[in-house]
Amino acid sequence: MTTLRYAYYPGCSGLGTSKEYDMSTRAVCEALGMELIDITDWSCCGSSPAHTVDDRLAGALSARNLVQAGDIEGVDAIITPCPSCLANLKTARHRLQKPEFRAEVNKLLERPVHGDILPVKSVLQAIVEDVGMEELRYRVRTPLKGMSIAPYYGCIMNRPPKIMEFDSHENPMALDNILEALGATVAPFNLKVECCGASFGVARRDIVERLSGKLLNLAAENNAQAMVTACPLCQMNLDARQNQINVANSTNHVMPIFYFTQLIGLALGFSQSQMGLEKLVVSPRELLAGAAG
Amino acid sequence: MHVINLSKTRDQEFISRVEQESGQNLSLCYQCGNCTAGCPVTFVYDIPVHQIVRLCQAGQKDAVLGCHSLWLCASCQSCTTRCPNSIDVAHIMDTLRHMARRDGYATEYGVKSFTDSFLESVERHGRAFELGLMMLYTMKTGKFWTDVDLAPAMLAKGKLGFKPHPVQNKEAISKIFKRFREEFAQ
Ligand code: SF4
Ligand code: SF4
Question: What angle is formed at CA B46 by the lines to CA B44 and CA B48, rounded to 5 degrees?
Fold first, then answer.
C-alpha cells in the first residue's frame, strides 16, 4: 500500500485535556499507513474565542499555521483531529480566497499568505475517504463484538456544509460506519449533531449541564453502553463533567466517552494503555472486560 | 412586555454596518423562525435569534448590542445551516458580538472574561495554556475557579499541565495581536 502523507495540526488540547486523542490518533494513523508530519512550530488557531472577537484576528491566527504547512514537501492536505481547529482552519482558508480579506490578514502576519493554500480535512475524513472502510475492516484484529455505542458527532464537524464539505450535515454517517466496520453495535442516536454546550463549561456551566445532560440521557435510554466522539470539547463536557451533570440533573450516568481513534486502535490490536484509556475520567474498564469475556 | 418604538430608534448606519461586516443581506430574512427552532441555547436567550435578525432589519442598535443572547451563542451553526434563505446567521451573531465589544456592551461578563483570558494566554505563549487561563479567569472575575472539583482528576491523569507549551517563535504570535490592535482595534 502506498503511504499517505499529511501535514498534521495537533491543536492545543492535544497537549493537555485531550492527550489521549492525540496519542491514539498518531498510533492509529501510523498503523493505517498514514504518515503525519507535524506543522513546524504550529500555534493556536484561535479556538472558539478568537472568531467572537474579530474575523481578521481569527483569520491570522489560523493563517500562520496554513502558511507553515505549505513548507512541508510532498503532502496534499492538512489534517487535524479537532473539529474546532478544523472549522477555524477551513473558515480561514475559505475567507482567504477573497483578496480584500487576504490583504487585511496579511497586515497581521510575519509571513504573509501567497498563492494556494493546502486543503484541510479532519482525521476522521481522511480515514473514511483516503483509507476507506474496506481497508479498515480488513485490518481489524479484535472486533468490538457486543458493545453498543452511540455515535455523537457534535455540532461543527459537518456544519456549515458549504465550508466543511464532508458527510451529511443533518445525519452524518462516518462514525456509524466506522463502528460498524469495527464490529460494534451502533446504538440509535438522533442527537448526532446537537450542541453539547461548547466552551460554556467555565462561565455558564448551567448550559453544559442541560445540553450535555440531554445527550447522556438519550444515549442511556437507547441502551448505549458508551458514546463515541471526535471532539475534545464534547468529550470533556460529557466525560470530565459527567459528575457535575449528574448532580445538576439528579441522574446517575456512568457512561464511558471514547474518542473514535481509541476504538479503532483497540480493534486493530493496540493495548488499552497505548490508546490512553486510563486518561478517560469515566473508566471503560468494566465495559471492556465484559466485552472480552 | 418590552415595547420598542421602531420609528424613533431606527439607526440606518447600524443596519449598513451589520450588513457590510457580516457580508449578509438582512432584508432576505422573512422571519420563518427556523433559526430559532434549531437553536440549542434559546432557553437562556433574552432575545431569540430570529428576533435579533428582525431587530437588525429595524436598525435597533441598542436593543441588539445590549442583549445577553449575543454572548451566549454557542456558534453551533445550526441557524446558518437551516436558514431557507442561506443567510449566515451565525456570522451575523459573530459580527454583532464584535460590535458589542467595540462599543463597550458586555452583558455576560463571565463569558467575555473567559474569551479575554483565553486570548491573553495565546498572546503570551502562542498556544492555549489551560491552567494559566483558569488563573487569569479567576483574577478577572474574582470568582474562584468554579471547576476546582475537576482539577484533581485532570492533574492525576496528566491532562492539566503546570507549565505552558510555548511555541519557539512566540514573538510572531504576540506581534499578530499587537498589529491587530494597531491596525484594526478602535
Ligand atoms: S431561518 Fe433565516 S429566514 Fe428564517 S427567521 Fe432565521 S434568518 Fe430569517
Ligand atoms: S450559532 Fe448561535 S444563534 Fe445560531 S443556532 Fe447556534 S447557538 Fe443559536
Answer: 90
Is the CB of B55 inside a 6 Å radius of any atom of ligand 1? no
The answer to whether the CB of B50 is under 6 A from ligand 1 is yes
* Cβ contact A198–B43 (<8 Å): no
Give the C-alpha separation, A270 to B184, whole Å. Answer: 50
8 Å CB contact of B176 and A108: yes
Amino acid (1-letter code) at residue B41: V
C-beta atoms of A159 and B165 within 8 A? no
B176 near A CB under 8 A? yes
A34-38 sheet: strands from edge to edge? A34-38, A4-8, A78-80, A120-122
Q: Model ipTM?
A: 0.93
Helices and strands counted in chain B (H then E): 12, 0
Spatial distance between the Cα atoms of A257 and A62, rounded to a whole number of angstroms: 29
- Predicted TM-score of the model (pTM): 0.94
Is the confidence at residue A251, as pLDDT, over 60?
yes
Instruction: Please list every residue in chain B whose beta carbon sits closer than 8 Å to the beta carbon of residue A61.
Output: 122, 173, 176
Amino acid letter for position A61: L
Complete edge-to-edge strand list for the sheet that includes strand A226-229: A185-186, A148-151, A226-229, A257-259
B78 with A159: CB under 8 angstroms?
yes
Span A76-128, pLDDT tens digits:
999 999 999 999 999 999 999 999 999 999 999 999 999 999 999 999 999 99
